[in-house]
Design goal:
mainly alpha, about 0% strand
Length: about 550
Protein backbone atom coordinates (compact mmCIF):
# COMPACT_ATOMS: atom_id res chain seq x y z
CA UNK A 1 0.00 0.00 0.00
CA UNK A 2 2.79 2.43 0.91
CA UNK A 3 4.67 1.60 -2.30
CA UNK A 4 1.56 2.16 -4.40
CA UNK A 5 0.90 5.48 -2.71
CA UNK A 6 4.53 6.53 -3.24
CA UNK A 7 4.41 5.64 -6.97
CA UNK A 8 1.15 7.56 -7.30
CA UNK A 9 2.60 10.67 -5.69
CA UNK A 10 5.77 10.47 -7.76
CA UNK A 11 3.88 10.06 -11.04
CA UNK A 12 3.96 13.34 -13.06
CA UNK A 13 0.69 15.25 -13.17
CA UNK A 14 -1.28 15.03 -16.42
CA UNK A 15 -0.93 18.03 -18.69
CA UNK A 16 -3.96 20.33 -18.78
CA UNK A 17 -5.00 19.43 -22.33
CA UNK A 18 -8.35 21.16 -22.09
CA UNK A 19 -6.84 24.62 -22.57
CA UNK A 20 -4.30 23.89 -25.28
CA UNK A 21 -6.54 21.31 -26.93
CA UNK A 22 -9.17 23.95 -27.58
CA UNK A 23 -6.90 26.03 -29.79
CA UNK A 24 -7.05 23.76 -32.89
CA UNK A 25 -10.83 23.48 -32.62
CA UNK A 26 -11.16 27.25 -32.15
CA UNK A 27 -9.07 27.99 -35.24
CA UNK A 28 -11.02 25.43 -37.28
CA UNK A 29 -14.30 26.94 -36.08
CA UNK A 30 -13.05 30.40 -37.05
CA UNK A 31 -12.02 29.30 -40.55
CA UNK A 32 -15.48 29.76 -42.21
CA UNK A 33 -15.78 33.18 -40.56
CA UNK A 34 -12.29 34.10 -41.78
CA UNK A 35 -13.26 33.15 -45.34
CA UNK A 36 -16.21 35.56 -45.11
CA UNK A 37 -14.47 38.46 -43.39
CA UNK A 38 -10.86 37.97 -44.49
CA UNK A 39 -11.00 39.30 -48.09
CA UNK A 40 -12.84 42.37 -46.83
CA UNK A 41 -9.76 43.83 -45.11
CA UNK A 42 -7.58 44.28 -48.22
CA UNK A 43 -10.72 45.23 -50.14
CA UNK A 44 -11.35 48.14 -47.78
CA UNK A 45 -7.76 49.27 -48.26
CA UNK A 46 -8.07 49.19 -52.04
CA UNK A 47 -11.49 50.87 -52.02
CA UNK A 48 -10.74 53.69 -49.59
CA UNK A 49 -7.11 54.35 -50.60
CA UNK A 50 -8.02 56.98 -53.26
CA UNK A 51 -9.56 59.14 -50.52
CA UNK A 52 -6.15 60.05 -49.06
CA UNK A 53 -5.46 62.60 -51.80
CA UNK A 54 -6.10 66.20 -50.65
CA UNK A 55 -7.46 67.12 -54.07
CA UNK A 56 -10.27 64.58 -53.60
CA UNK A 57 -11.42 66.31 -50.43
CA UNK A 58 -11.26 69.73 -52.10
CA UNK A 59 -13.47 68.43 -54.91
CA UNK A 60 -15.87 66.93 -52.37
CA UNK A 61 -16.29 70.18 -50.45
CA UNK A 62 -16.73 72.11 -53.69
CA UNK A 63 -19.51 69.83 -54.94
CA UNK A 64 -22.81 71.75 -55.00
CA UNK A 65 -24.85 68.66 -54.07
CA UNK A 66 -22.87 68.03 -50.91
CA UNK A 67 -24.52 70.41 -48.36
CA UNK A 68 -28.11 69.49 -49.22
CA UNK A 69 -27.28 65.77 -49.29
CA UNK A 70 -25.76 65.98 -45.81
CA UNK A 71 -28.76 67.94 -44.54
CA UNK A 72 -31.26 65.39 -45.87
CA UNK A 73 -29.19 62.51 -44.49
CA UNK A 74 -28.86 63.97 -41.01
CA UNK A 75 -32.53 64.97 -40.86
CA UNK A 76 -33.87 61.58 -41.96
CA UNK A 77 -31.39 59.56 -39.91
CA UNK A 78 -31.50 61.45 -36.62
CA UNK A 79 -35.25 62.03 -36.72
CA UNK A 80 -35.98 58.45 -37.79
CA UNK A 81 -33.69 56.97 -35.12
CA UNK A 82 -35.07 59.22 -32.37
CA UNK A 83 -38.68 58.39 -33.30
CA UNK A 84 -37.97 54.67 -33.55
CA UNK A 85 -36.36 54.60 -30.10
CA UNK A 86 -39.19 56.70 -28.65
CA UNK A 87 -41.93 54.51 -30.14
CA UNK A 88 -40.31 51.31 -28.88
CA UNK A 89 -39.62 52.78 -25.42
CA UNK A 90 -43.17 54.09 -24.99
CA UNK A 91 -44.76 50.83 -26.11
CA UNK A 92 -42.59 48.80 -23.73
CA UNK A 93 -43.05 51.18 -20.81
CA UNK A 94 -46.83 51.38 -21.06
CA UNK A 95 -47.61 47.79 -22.04
CA UNK A 96 -45.06 45.48 -20.38
CA UNK A 97 -46.02 43.28 -18.66
CA UNK A 98 -49.53 42.57 -19.86
CA UNK A 99 -51.71 40.88 -22.44
CA UNK A 100 -51.21 43.72 -24.94
CA UNK A 101 -47.44 43.24 -24.82
CA UNK A 102 -47.85 39.53 -25.60
CA UNK A 103 -50.14 40.46 -28.49
CA UNK A 104 -47.51 42.87 -29.84
CA UNK A 105 -44.89 40.11 -29.67
CA UNK A 106 -47.08 37.77 -31.72
CA UNK A 107 -47.53 40.39 -34.46
CA UNK A 108 -43.87 41.35 -34.76
CA UNK A 109 -42.66 38.40 -36.93
CA UNK A 110 -45.23 39.20 -39.60
CA UNK A 111 -44.21 42.87 -39.74
CA UNK A 112 -40.48 42.14 -39.56
CA UNK A 113 -40.80 39.85 -42.59
CA UNK A 114 -41.67 42.88 -44.75
CA UNK A 115 -38.38 43.97 -46.38
CA UNK A 116 -37.38 47.62 -46.26
CA UNK A 117 -37.74 48.21 -50.00
CA UNK A 118 -41.22 46.63 -50.14
CA UNK A 119 -42.28 48.66 -47.10
CA UNK A 120 -41.01 51.84 -48.75
CA UNK A 121 -42.95 51.07 -51.95
CA UNK A 122 -46.16 50.44 -50.00
CA UNK A 123 -45.67 53.59 -47.92
CA UNK A 124 -45.14 55.55 -51.15
CA UNK A 125 -48.49 54.24 -52.41
CA UNK A 126 -50.06 55.39 -49.13
CA UNK A 127 -48.50 58.85 -48.74
CA UNK A 128 -48.14 60.06 -52.33
CA UNK A 129 -50.37 63.01 -53.36
CA UNK A 130 -52.43 60.49 -55.35
CA UNK A 131 -52.02 57.76 -52.76
CA UNK A 132 -54.58 55.86 -50.75
CA UNK A 133 -54.66 58.33 -47.84
CA UNK A 134 -55.20 61.29 -50.18
CA UNK A 135 -58.00 59.36 -51.91
CA UNK A 136 -59.66 58.79 -48.54
CA UNK A 137 -59.47 62.52 -47.72
CA UNK A 138 -60.77 63.35 -51.21
CA UNK A 139 -63.97 61.43 -50.45
CA UNK A 140 -64.60 63.77 -47.51
CA UNK A 141 -63.57 67.16 -48.94
CA UNK A 142 -64.51 66.58 -52.58
CA UNK A 143 -61.13 66.80 -54.33
CA UNK A 144 -61.22 65.96 -58.02
CA UNK A 145 -57.45 66.03 -58.54
CA UNK A 146 -54.47 65.20 -56.32
CA UNK A 147 -53.35 68.04 -54.03
CA UNK A 148 -50.18 69.94 -54.87
CA UNK A 149 -48.38 68.69 -51.75
CA UNK A 150 -44.90 67.24 -51.36
CA UNK A 151 -45.68 64.25 -49.15
CA UNK A 152 -42.94 61.94 -50.42
CA UNK A 153 -39.43 62.55 -51.76
CA UNK A 154 -39.30 65.92 -49.98
CA UNK A 155 -36.00 67.80 -49.86
CA UNK A 156 -35.56 67.28 -46.09
CA UNK A 157 -36.17 63.53 -46.16
CA UNK A 158 -39.11 63.66 -43.75
CA UNK A 159 -41.02 60.86 -45.49
CA UNK A 160 -37.86 58.75 -45.37
CA UNK A 161 -37.53 59.54 -41.65
CA UNK A 162 -41.11 58.38 -41.06
CA UNK A 163 -40.48 55.12 -42.91
CA UNK A 164 -37.28 54.49 -40.94
CA UNK A 165 -39.03 55.31 -37.65
CA UNK A 166 -41.86 52.84 -38.22
CA UNK A 167 -39.74 50.03 -39.65
CA UNK A 168 -36.91 50.29 -37.13
CA UNK A 169 -39.30 50.58 -34.18
CA UNK A 170 -40.44 47.03 -34.97
CA UNK A 171 -36.82 45.88 -34.90
CA UNK A 172 -36.19 47.58 -31.56
CA UNK A 173 -39.39 46.08 -30.14
CA UNK A 174 -38.14 42.64 -31.22
CA UNK A 175 -34.84 43.23 -29.42
CA UNK A 176 -36.68 44.50 -26.34
CA UNK A 177 -38.94 41.44 -26.35
CA UNK A 178 -35.88 39.20 -26.28
CA UNK A 179 -34.33 41.11 -23.38
CA UNK A 180 -37.57 41.33 -21.41
CA UNK A 181 -38.05 37.59 -21.76
CA UNK A 182 -35.16 36.97 -19.39
CA UNK A 183 -36.06 35.79 -15.92
CA UNK A 184 -33.97 38.40 -14.08
CA UNK A 185 -35.73 41.33 -15.78
CA UNK A 186 -39.17 39.85 -15.15
CA UNK A 187 -38.37 39.31 -11.47
CA UNK A 188 -37.25 42.92 -11.04
CA UNK A 189 -40.50 44.19 -12.54
CA UNK A 190 -42.53 41.92 -10.24
CA UNK A 191 -40.53 43.10 -7.22
CA UNK A 192 -40.99 46.78 -8.11
CA UNK A 193 -44.74 46.37 -8.64
CA UNK A 194 -45.07 44.43 -5.38
CA UNK A 195 -43.43 47.37 -3.56
CA UNK A 196 -46.15 49.70 -4.81
CA UNK A 197 -44.42 51.40 -7.75
CA UNK A 198 -46.58 51.82 -10.83
CA UNK A 199 -45.51 50.57 -14.25
CA UNK A 200 -43.95 53.85 -15.43
CA UNK A 201 -42.04 54.35 -12.18
CA UNK A 202 -40.67 50.80 -12.32
CA UNK A 203 -39.42 51.38 -15.85
CA UNK A 204 -37.94 54.83 -15.22
CA UNK A 205 -36.26 54.04 -11.91
CA UNK A 206 -35.27 50.40 -12.22
CA UNK A 207 -35.49 48.82 -15.69
CA UNK A 208 -34.36 51.51 -18.13
CA UNK A 209 -31.09 52.32 -16.30
CA UNK A 210 -30.16 48.65 -16.67
CA UNK A 211 -31.56 47.97 -20.15
CA UNK A 212 -30.25 50.99 -22.06
CA UNK A 213 -26.57 49.86 -21.87
CA UNK A 214 -27.65 46.49 -23.26
CA UNK A 215 -29.50 48.15 -26.14
CA UNK A 216 -26.57 50.28 -27.27
CA UNK A 217 -25.56 48.08 -30.20
CA UNK A 218 -29.10 47.66 -31.61
CA UNK A 219 -29.56 51.45 -31.48
CA UNK A 220 -26.18 51.97 -33.17
CA UNK A 221 -27.28 49.50 -35.84
CA UNK A 222 -30.43 51.56 -36.44
CA UNK A 223 -28.36 54.74 -36.71
CA UNK A 224 -25.88 53.10 -39.11
CA UNK A 225 -28.67 51.76 -41.31
CA UNK A 226 -30.30 55.18 -41.54
CA UNK A 227 -27.02 56.77 -42.61
CA UNK A 228 -26.29 54.23 -45.36
CA UNK A 229 -29.73 53.17 -46.61
CA UNK A 230 -30.00 53.39 -50.40
CA UNK A 231 -33.06 51.42 -51.52
CA UNK A 232 -35.52 53.22 -49.22
CA UNK A 233 -33.83 56.56 -49.99
CA UNK A 234 -34.28 56.05 -53.73
CA UNK A 235 -38.00 55.35 -53.24
CA UNK A 236 -38.91 57.88 -50.54
CA UNK A 237 -35.94 60.23 -50.24
CA UNK A 238 -35.22 63.46 -52.13
CA UNK A 239 -34.25 63.21 -55.77
CA UNK A 240 -31.97 66.15 -56.70
CA UNK A 241 -29.79 66.11 -54.79
CA UNK A 242 -30.40 62.76 -53.09
CA UNK A 243 -29.30 61.66 -49.65
CA UNK A 244 -25.61 61.22 -49.02
CA UNK A 245 -25.77 57.42 -49.27
CA UNK A 246 -27.40 57.55 -52.71
CA UNK A 247 -24.90 60.19 -53.82
CA UNK A 248 -21.98 58.00 -52.69
CA UNK A 249 -23.49 55.02 -54.47
CA UNK A 250 -23.71 57.00 -57.71
CA UNK A 251 -20.13 58.22 -57.38
CA UNK A 252 -18.73 54.76 -56.62
CA UNK A 253 -20.48 53.23 -59.63
CA UNK A 254 -19.42 56.01 -62.00
CA UNK A 255 -16.73 55.08 -64.56
CA UNK A 256 -14.88 58.34 -63.82
CA UNK A 257 -11.99 57.61 -61.42
CA UNK A 258 -12.24 61.10 -59.90
CA UNK A 259 -15.88 60.55 -58.94
CA UNK A 260 -15.04 57.11 -57.52
CA UNK A 261 -12.38 58.70 -55.31
CA UNK A 262 -14.90 61.31 -54.22
CA UNK A 263 -17.28 58.51 -53.26
CA UNK A 264 -14.53 56.87 -51.19
CA UNK A 265 -13.92 60.12 -49.33
CA UNK A 266 -17.63 60.57 -48.68
CA UNK A 267 -17.77 56.99 -47.34
CA UNK A 268 -15.19 58.02 -44.74
CA UNK A 269 -17.51 60.84 -43.73
CA UNK A 270 -20.34 58.38 -43.22
CA UNK A 271 -18.15 56.54 -40.72
CA UNK A 272 -17.29 59.84 -39.02
CA UNK A 273 -20.99 60.75 -38.77
CA UNK A 274 -21.73 57.40 -37.15
CA UNK A 275 -18.91 57.86 -34.65
CA UNK A 276 -19.97 61.41 -33.77
CA UNK A 277 -23.61 60.38 -33.43
CA UNK A 278 -22.69 57.48 -31.15
CA UNK A 279 -20.48 59.67 -28.95
CA UNK A 280 -23.19 62.34 -28.74
CA UNK A 281 -25.80 59.75 -27.70
CA UNK A 282 -23.41 58.34 -25.11
CA UNK A 283 -22.79 61.81 -23.66
CA UNK A 284 -26.53 62.52 -23.57
CA UNK A 285 -27.16 59.25 -21.70
CA UNK A 286 -24.47 60.02 -19.13
CA UNK A 287 -25.95 63.47 -18.57
CA UNK A 288 -29.38 61.93 -18.23
CA UNK A 289 -28.11 59.37 -15.74
CA UNK A 290 -26.89 62.14 -13.46
CA UNK A 291 -30.33 63.73 -13.48
CA UNK A 292 -32.34 60.55 -13.09
CA UNK A 293 -34.15 60.55 -9.75
CA UNK A 294 -33.00 58.01 -7.22
CA UNK A 295 -35.82 55.73 -5.95
CA UNK A 296 -36.95 57.67 -2.88
CA UNK A 297 -39.82 55.39 -1.96
CA UNK A 298 -42.52 57.77 -3.23
CA UNK A 299 -45.30 55.85 -4.97
CA UNK A 300 -47.61 57.48 -7.52
CA UNK A 301 -51.04 56.00 -8.31
CA UNK A 302 -51.94 55.44 -11.93
CA UNK A 303 -54.64 58.11 -11.85
CA UNK A 304 -51.88 60.75 -11.69
CA UNK A 305 -50.63 59.53 -15.06
CA UNK A 306 -53.86 60.33 -16.92
CA UNK A 307 -52.18 62.73 -19.42
CA UNK A 308 -50.14 59.79 -20.75
CA UNK A 309 -53.14 57.58 -21.48
CA UNK A 310 -53.47 58.68 -25.13
CA UNK A 311 -50.09 57.07 -25.75
CA UNK A 312 -51.63 53.71 -24.86
CA UNK A 313 -53.01 53.55 -28.40
CA UNK A 314 -49.63 54.19 -30.05
CA UNK A 315 -49.39 50.57 -31.19
CA UNK A 316 -52.50 50.92 -33.34
CA UNK A 317 -51.13 53.34 -36.00
CA UNK A 318 -47.73 51.63 -36.00
CA UNK A 319 -49.14 48.20 -36.72
CA UNK A 320 -51.99 49.41 -38.93
CA UNK A 321 -49.41 51.10 -41.16
CA UNK A 322 -47.75 47.75 -41.76
CA UNK A 323 -51.05 46.10 -42.60
CA UNK A 324 -52.09 49.03 -44.81
CA UNK A 325 -48.80 48.78 -46.74
CA UNK A 326 -49.49 45.14 -47.61
CA UNK A 327 -53.16 45.89 -48.40
CA UNK A 328 -52.39 48.72 -50.84
CA UNK A 329 -49.76 46.59 -52.58
CA UNK A 330 -52.32 43.81 -52.99
CA UNK A 331 -54.84 46.27 -54.43
CA UNK A 332 -52.40 47.74 -56.94
CA UNK A 333 -51.25 44.26 -58.03
CA UNK A 334 -54.78 43.34 -59.15
CA UNK A 335 -56.08 46.79 -60.15
CA UNK A 336 -57.05 47.55 -63.70
CA UNK A 337 -58.37 51.13 -63.99
CA UNK A 338 -57.86 53.12 -60.79
CA UNK A 339 -58.11 56.86 -61.25
CA UNK A 340 -58.06 59.58 -58.61
CA UNK A 341 -60.10 60.14 -56.41
CA UNK A 342 -61.58 56.61 -56.48
CA UNK A 343 -60.91 54.78 -53.23
CA UNK A 344 -61.12 51.34 -54.87
CA UNK A 345 -60.17 50.13 -58.36
CA UNK A 346 -62.91 50.13 -60.94
CA UNK A 347 -61.98 46.60 -61.96
CA UNK A 348 -59.64 43.89 -60.73
CA UNK A 349 -57.74 41.29 -62.70
CA UNK A 350 -54.85 38.84 -62.30
CA UNK A 351 -53.30 40.05 -65.55
CA UNK A 352 -50.34 41.68 -63.77
CA UNK A 353 -49.57 38.41 -61.99
CA UNK A 354 -49.94 36.36 -65.17
CA UNK A 355 -47.58 38.64 -67.07
CA UNK A 356 -45.11 39.08 -64.22
CA UNK A 357 -41.42 38.42 -64.73
CA UNK A 358 -40.60 35.54 -62.36
CA UNK A 359 -36.87 35.45 -63.11
CA UNK A 360 -36.01 37.85 -60.23
CA UNK A 361 -38.07 35.68 -57.88
CA UNK A 362 -36.16 32.48 -58.69
CA UNK A 363 -32.82 34.31 -58.53
CA UNK A 364 -33.70 35.66 -55.10
CA UNK A 365 -34.87 32.23 -53.94
CA UNK A 366 -31.70 30.31 -54.81
CA UNK A 367 -29.48 33.15 -53.64
CA UNK A 368 -31.17 33.43 -50.23
CA UNK A 369 -31.19 29.64 -49.81
CA UNK A 370 -27.50 29.38 -50.66
CA UNK A 371 -26.51 32.23 -48.33
CA UNK A 372 -28.54 31.05 -45.33
CA UNK A 373 -27.70 27.35 -45.72
CA UNK A 374 -23.98 28.11 -46.06
CA UNK A 375 -24.07 30.32 -42.97
CA UNK A 376 -25.93 27.83 -40.78
CA UNK A 377 -23.06 25.34 -40.23
CA UNK A 378 -20.62 28.24 -39.87
CA UNK A 379 -22.81 29.76 -37.13
CA UNK A 380 -23.27 26.45 -35.29
CA UNK A 381 -19.57 25.63 -35.39
CA UNK A 382 -18.65 29.15 -34.26
CA UNK A 383 -21.06 29.13 -31.32
CA UNK A 384 -19.94 25.66 -30.23
CA UNK A 385 -16.18 25.78 -30.70
CA UNK A 386 -15.30 29.31 -31.79
CA UNK A 387 -13.59 31.99 -29.65
CA UNK A 388 -16.61 33.73 -28.17
CA UNK A 389 -14.59 36.74 -27.03
CA UNK A 390 -14.53 37.88 -30.68
CA UNK A 391 -18.32 37.89 -31.10
CA UNK A 392 -18.32 41.68 -31.19
CA UNK A 393 -16.27 41.58 -34.40
CA UNK A 394 -19.01 39.58 -36.11
CA UNK A 395 -21.49 42.36 -35.40
CA UNK A 396 -19.44 45.04 -37.17
CA UNK A 397 -21.42 44.77 -40.45
CA UNK A 398 -24.56 45.59 -38.46
CA UNK A 399 -23.18 48.72 -36.78
CA UNK A 400 -21.04 50.11 -39.61
CA UNK A 401 -22.54 51.91 -42.64
CA UNK A 402 -22.93 49.41 -45.46
CA UNK A 403 -21.46 51.51 -48.28
CA UNK A 404 -17.77 51.30 -47.22
CA UNK A 405 -18.13 47.55 -46.66
CA UNK A 406 -19.80 46.99 -50.03
CA UNK A 407 -17.11 49.05 -51.74
CA UNK A 408 -14.45 46.93 -50.00
CA UNK A 409 -16.16 43.74 -51.13
CA UNK A 410 -16.31 44.96 -54.70
CA UNK A 411 -12.64 45.99 -54.72
CA UNK A 412 -11.62 42.55 -53.40
CA UNK A 413 -13.74 40.79 -56.05
CA UNK A 414 -12.19 42.95 -58.79
CA UNK A 415 -8.67 41.96 -57.71
CA UNK A 416 -9.72 38.29 -57.55
CA UNK A 417 -11.46 38.53 -60.97
CA UNK A 418 -14.68 37.16 -59.47
CA UNK A 419 -16.99 40.15 -59.92
CA UNK A 420 -20.24 39.37 -61.69
CA UNK A 421 -20.19 35.67 -60.78
CA UNK A 422 -22.62 33.63 -58.71
CA UNK A 423 -19.87 32.78 -56.22
CA UNK A 424 -19.15 36.48 -55.66
CA UNK A 425 -22.84 37.24 -55.26
CA UNK A 426 -23.36 34.57 -52.60
CA UNK A 427 -20.17 35.58 -50.75
CA UNK A 428 -21.24 39.23 -50.70
CA UNK A 429 -24.49 38.28 -48.93
CA UNK A 430 -22.75 36.14 -46.30
CA UNK A 431 -21.22 39.20 -44.64
CA UNK A 432 -24.68 40.38 -43.51
CA UNK A 433 -26.46 37.03 -43.16
CA UNK A 434 -23.90 35.59 -40.71
CA UNK A 435 -24.11 38.34 -38.02
CA UNK A 436 -27.91 38.31 -37.99
CA UNK A 437 -28.00 34.52 -37.63
CA UNK A 438 -25.47 34.63 -34.78
CA UNK A 439 -27.46 37.40 -33.08
CA UNK A 440 -30.68 35.38 -33.40
CA UNK A 441 -29.25 32.10 -32.13
CA UNK A 442 -26.79 33.18 -29.44
CA UNK A 443 -29.43 33.79 -26.78
CA UNK A 444 -30.91 30.30 -27.05
CA UNK A 445 -27.42 28.82 -27.21
CA UNK A 446 -26.39 30.49 -23.96
CA UNK A 447 -29.63 29.46 -22.25
CA UNK A 448 -29.12 25.79 -23.15
CA UNK A 449 -28.72 23.52 -20.10
CA UNK A 450 -25.09 22.38 -20.20
CA UNK A 451 -25.89 19.38 -18.00
CA UNK A 452 -27.48 17.66 -20.99
CA UNK A 453 -24.20 17.79 -22.89
CA UNK A 454 -22.31 16.60 -19.79
CA UNK A 455 -24.63 13.59 -19.53
CA UNK A 456 -24.15 12.78 -23.22
CA UNK A 457 -20.37 13.00 -22.89
CA UNK A 458 -20.49 10.82 -19.77
CA UNK A 459 -22.34 8.16 -21.77
CA UNK A 460 -19.46 8.01 -24.24
CA UNK A 461 -20.51 10.44 -26.97
CA UNK A 462 -17.94 12.65 -28.57
CA UNK A 463 -18.52 16.40 -28.55
CA UNK A 464 -19.68 16.41 -32.17
CA UNK A 465 -21.96 13.40 -31.70
CA UNK A 466 -23.46 14.96 -28.56
CA UNK A 467 -24.23 18.11 -30.56
CA UNK A 468 -25.78 16.12 -33.41
CA UNK A 469 -27.82 13.86 -31.14
CA UNK A 470 -28.72 16.08 -28.19
CA UNK A 471 -27.96 19.78 -28.40
CA UNK A 472 -28.89 20.75 -31.93
CA UNK A 473 -32.12 18.68 -32.01
CA UNK A 474 -33.22 20.41 -28.79
CA UNK A 475 -32.33 23.79 -30.33
CA UNK A 476 -34.12 22.95 -33.58
CA UNK A 477 -36.72 25.70 -33.11
CA UNK A 478 -34.24 28.60 -32.58
CA UNK A 479 -32.02 27.15 -35.33
CA UNK A 480 -34.93 27.32 -37.77
CA UNK A 481 -35.70 30.85 -36.60
CA UNK A 482 -32.09 31.86 -37.26
CA UNK A 483 -32.26 30.24 -40.70
CA UNK A 484 -35.43 32.19 -41.50
CA UNK A 485 -33.84 35.45 -40.35
CA UNK A 486 -30.78 34.77 -42.53
CA UNK A 487 -33.03 34.01 -45.50
CA UNK A 488 -34.97 37.27 -44.99
CA UNK A 489 -31.76 39.30 -44.65
CA UNK A 490 -30.46 37.90 -47.94
CA UNK A 491 -33.73 38.70 -49.72
CA UNK A 492 -33.52 42.33 -48.60
CA UNK A 493 -29.91 42.95 -49.73
CA UNK A 494 -29.71 45.66 -52.38
CA UNK A 495 -26.21 47.14 -52.48
CA UNK A 496 -24.28 43.82 -52.34
CA UNK A 497 -26.41 42.46 -55.18
CA UNK A 498 -25.73 45.50 -57.35
CA UNK A 499 -21.98 45.69 -56.70
CA UNK A 500 -20.97 42.02 -56.55
CA UNK A 501 -23.47 40.92 -59.18
CA UNK A 502 -22.29 43.55 -61.63
CA UNK A 503 -25.84 44.03 -62.91
CA UNK A 504 -25.98 40.44 -64.20
CA UNK A 505 -28.27 39.16 -61.45
CA UNK A 506 -31.68 40.73 -60.92
CA UNK A 507 -33.51 40.02 -57.65
CA UNK A 508 -36.94 41.13 -56.51
CA UNK A 509 -35.29 43.83 -54.41
CA UNK A 510 -33.25 45.35 -57.23
CA UNK A 511 -36.22 45.02 -59.59
CA UNK A 512 -38.59 46.79 -57.18
CA UNK A 513 -36.16 49.68 -56.64
CA UNK A 514 -35.59 50.02 -60.38
CA UNK A 515 -39.34 50.06 -61.10
CA UNK A 516 -39.93 52.68 -58.40
CA UNK A 517 -38.15 55.25 -60.57
CA UNK A 518 -41.20 55.50 -62.81
CA UNK A 519 -42.35 52.07 -63.87
CA UNK A 520 -45.83 50.60 -63.95
CA UNK A 521 -47.35 50.65 -60.47
CA UNK A 522 -49.02 47.29 -61.00
CA UNK A 523 -45.76 45.61 -61.96
CA UNK A 524 -44.01 47.35 -59.07
CA UNK A 525 -46.66 46.10 -56.63
CA UNK A 526 -46.24 42.52 -57.89
CA UNK A 527 -42.47 42.60 -57.38
CA UNK A 528 -42.85 44.17 -53.92
CA UNK A 529 -45.32 41.46 -52.91
CA UNK A 530 -42.97 38.75 -54.17
CA UNK A 531 -40.28 40.32 -52.02
CA UNK A 532 -42.62 40.06 -49.01
CA UNK A 533 -43.77 36.52 -49.85
CA UNK A 534 -40.29 34.97 -49.67
CA UNK A 535 -39.42 35.98 -46.06
CA UNK A 536 -43.00 35.33 -44.98
CA UNK A 537 -42.79 31.77 -46.32
CA UNK A 538 -39.45 31.29 -44.57
CA UNK A 539 -40.85 32.42 -41.20
CA UNK A 540 -43.92 30.23 -41.68
CA UNK A 541 -41.75 27.17 -42.34
CA UNK A 542 -39.55 28.08 -39.35
CA UNK A 543 -42.67 27.98 -37.17
CA UNK A 544 -44.30 24.88 -38.68
CA UNK A 545 -41.34 22.53 -39.07
CA UNK A 546 -40.33 22.53 -35.36
CA UNK A 547 -43.98 22.01 -34.41
CA UNK A 548 -44.26 19.06 -36.80
CA UNK A 549 -40.91 17.59 -35.71
CA UNK A 550 -41.88 17.82 -32.02
CA UNK A 551 -45.51 16.75 -32.38
CA UNK A 552 -44.78 13.71 -30.20
CA UNK A 553 -42.34 15.54 -27.90
CA UNK A 554 -44.30 18.13 -25.98
CA UNK A 555 -41.24 19.44 -24.13
CA UNK A 556 -39.58 20.58 -27.38
CA UNK A 557 -42.49 22.75 -28.56
Amino acid sequence: MAATLRRTLERPLPRPVHACGRWPSQWLAALPVALIFGPLLPGLWWALLPAVEPSVWHALWADTQWPQAVRATLTSTLLGTALACSFAALLATLNYPGALWLSLQRRLPLLLSVPHAAFAVGLFFLLAPSGWLARGVAQLVGWSSPPDWVTVQDSYGLSLALALAIKESWFLLWVLAAVLGEQAVARQMVMARSLGYNRVQAWALILWPQLVPRLVWPMVAVLAYGLSVVDMAIILGPGTPPTLAVLIWRWLTDPDAALQARGSAAAFLLLAMLLLGTLAARGFWRLLQRRLPYPAGQRKPLRQLAPMRPWLGLHTPLFLTGYAVVAVLLLWSVAQAWFFPALWPEAVSLQSWQQADWAPFWTTLWLALAASLLCLPAVLVWLEWGPQRYNALLYLPLIVPALPLVAGQYAALLHLHLDGTAVALVWSHLLWVLPYMVLTLIGAYRAFDARLMTSARALGCSHLRACLSVKWPILFKPIMAALAVGFAVSVAQYLPTLFAGGGRFVTVTTEAVALSAGGNRRVLAVQALLQIALPLAAFALAALLPYWASRQRKGLR
